[in-house]
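TL;DR need structure tokens for one chain.
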Amino acid sequence: MDIYAKQIKPKSLCRRTPAQIFCRGDNKVRPVDEIDGRIISIITAEPRITASAGAKNAGISRATWSARLSRLEDGGALSKIRPSVDLALVGYPFTAIMRAQIRQGMRRALIAEHLIKIPQVVEAQMILGDYDVSLLVAARDNKELSNVIDRIGESPMVIRTSTSMITESIIPYRAHELFSRHGS
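>> reply
TL;DR here they are.
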């Protein structure tokens, strides 16, 4: 059966591992073949690449490139292309990684509802370990960052937080590396 024949659950329910797409709803692991691996590598390295150039780099036809890319997007393996923003260059030079421990029994939806109201929370994930939530926060200055930390920590859902300032990005997001050696 074609790996895309069955309706795939929304990407929010999917966990991606190297060379696989795993969706919790149907417990099906869908291996990424060599062509999909090349497409993922190319599109994540150059998100603005044209279909013609992408197809040429992947060694496939433009029609195959477009069809495969659509399937990867529709299946949740790739999200729609979005620009990468350098927060420091747009006025938010203070970035930090926060971790929060949440009270037992708190629903993820309530936590997300609280955090989504704080615009300085750029990204958040549920995690396993000593803490339950990992957050990327951005601020214009130390005072704003301190206010964000207080706002998150003051929630009755939060037991404790830990904050680490980001001083420098030494390896930017690079999912394409997972697929650049696909099949090797």
